[in-house]
Design brief:
seven-stranded mixed beta sheet; three-stranded antiparallel beta sheet
C-alpha cells in the first residue's frame, strides 16, 4: 500500500508517531515560511497574518466534521477550550469521565473544586450516565492506547438522561469520520492527525449550548465588526461561535489552511481506509512475533503494545519513530505511511 499525499510529504525516517505530532505537508511549510519572511521584512504592512486564513481553516474544519462554520471557534489549545466549558458548569454539577482519559479533558473541571467528577472504565461509560450527570466528557479515541469509545451508545445514554456531551477528537479527527454536530461540544487539537502546526485548535458548539457558554476570554477578535471594536469594550460580540475565538497564532493558521485543504482533497473516508489497513497489518505482524496489542473495538489507526518499552531504544536507533505512553509502545499510522513502514517496524522488533 502506497502513501497518500504524494510529494507533499518527505519523511527521512519511518515516522509512526502522529499521535504525538503529525508531519506538516510541504504546502503548509511554504505558507508558514512565506508569512515569517513577510514579517521579517515588513512586507505585510500592518498585522502579522491574515484573518482570511483563519476563516478558511475554520470553514475547512467545518466541512470535514459536518457542521456549519458558524458553530466553529478557532483557538490555540484544547485545554483552553475545555476550560471555557468547565467555567460554564453550575456548582455541584456531575461530570462523567473515562478512567485514564487525556488530562486536558479532565483537569479544567477538577481545578474548579466545586464540581463532582466521576471516573468509570471506558467500556462502561454509556451505562454509567445517570439522571444527575450534567456532562459526559470523553475522547473519541484514547490517547494512551487507541481504544475507540462507543460513540453511539454514549450519545444515546446522555440524551436519555438530559446530559450534555463534550467529545475530544484530537486523536481521531483526520482519520476517523466525525459528525461534530452530534455533540454539544467538540474540541480538537490540530497538530496531530489534522497535520496543522501547533497553535491550532477547534471548538464546535451547538446553537443551544452557545446560549449558556460565556465568552470569558473575549477580545476584539470576538467582535461582530472585527475592526470596529478595537478600543473600549466590544459593543457587539459575533453572533456565531466566533465570539469564542482566541486571538489566532497567524503562523499556525496560515499552515492550517493548507493542511486542512489537503485533507479535504484526499477525503477522510479514503484516509480512514488507508490508516486502519496499515494498523491492522501491524497488529497481525505483532501477533506473529508473540506480542499482544491492546484490544480495540472496531478499527483504530493507533496500536499500543504492552511489554515493549525495552525495545523503544532499538526502534529509535533504527529511525523508527513511535512513542511510549502509559506503559505502552504506541504506533500511529497516517496518510504518509505505507506498508514498507509497517514492515520496517516489524523487522526491527523481530531482530
Amino acid at each position: 500500500m502506497d502513501t497518500l499525499g504524494g510529494a507533499e510529504f518527505a519523511p527521512d525516517m519511518t515516522y509512526l508517531n502522529t499521535s504525538s505530532c503529525g508531519l506538516l505537508p510541504r504546502r503548509s511549510v511554504t505558507a508558514v515560511q512565506e508569512l515569517a519572511e513577510a514579517n521579517a521584512t515588513g512586507r505585510r504592512g500592518e498585522g502579522a497574518g491574515s484573518f482570511e486564513s483563519v476563516d478558511a481553516a475554520r470553514h475547512s474544519f467545518a466541512r470535514l466534521t459536518g457542521v456549519p462554520a458558524e458553530r466553529v471557534a478557532a483557538g490555540g489549545s484544547v485545554s483552553v477550550h475545555v476550560g471555557l466549558i468547565a467555567a460554564s458548569m453550575p456548582t455541584g454539577a456531575e461530570v462523567l469521565f473515562a478512567e485514564g482519559d487525556f488530562s486536558s479533558v479532565i483537569t479544567p473541571f477538577v481545578v474548579r473544586g466545586d464540581l463532582k467528577p466521576r471516573y468509570v472504565p471506558l467500556e462502561k461509560l454509556a451505562e454509567e450516565v445517570r439522571p444527575d450527570t450534567a456532562l459526559v466528557a470523553f475522547s473519541a479515541v484514547q490517547s494512551a492506547d487507541g481504544r475507540i469509545a462507543d460513540l453511539d451508545a454514549v450519545r444515546a445514554a446522555a440524551a436519555a438522561h438530559g446530559a450534555r456531551t463534550l467529545l475530544d477528537a484530537s486523536q481521531s479527527a483526520g482519520w476517523l469520520p466525525l459528525d461534530a454536530g452530534a455533540y454539544d461540544y467538540t474540541v480538537t487539537g490540530g497538530f496531530k492527525f489534522l497535520l496543522c502546526p501547533r497553535g491550532t485548535s477547534f471548538l464546535t458548539v451547538t446553537e443551544e449550548a452557545q446560549e449558556s457558554l460565556v465568552p470569558l476570554h473575549a477580545g476584539w477578535v470576538s467582535g461582530e465588526d472585527l475592526y470596529g471594536n478595537t478600543y473600549g469594550p466590544v459593543e457587539r460580540l459575533a453572533a456565531s461561535a466566533r465570539r469564542f475565538d482566541e486571538p489566532p497564532s497567524f503562523l499556525a493558521y496560515h499552515g492550517a489552511e493548507q493542511s486542512l485543504a489537503l485533507l479535504e482533497e484526499i477525503g477522510i473516508e479514503t484516509i480512514h481506509a488507508h490508516d486502519t489497513a496499515l494498523a491492522a497489518r501491524f497488529r497481525a505482524g505483532l501477533a506473529g512475533l508473540g506480542y499482544e496489542p491492546v484490544p480495540v473495538a472496531g478499527q483504530s489507526a493507533i496500536v499500543s503494545v504492552p511489554g515493549l518499552e525495552h525495545r523503544h531504544p532499538d526502534l529509535q536507533r533504527a529511525l523508527v519513530a513511535v512513542s511510549v505512553r502509559a506503559g505502552y509502545v504506541r504506533a500511529a499510522f497516517h496518510l504518509y505511511n505505507s506498508t514498507a513502514d509497517v514492515d520496517r517496524a516489524l523487522d526491527v522488533l523481530a531482530g
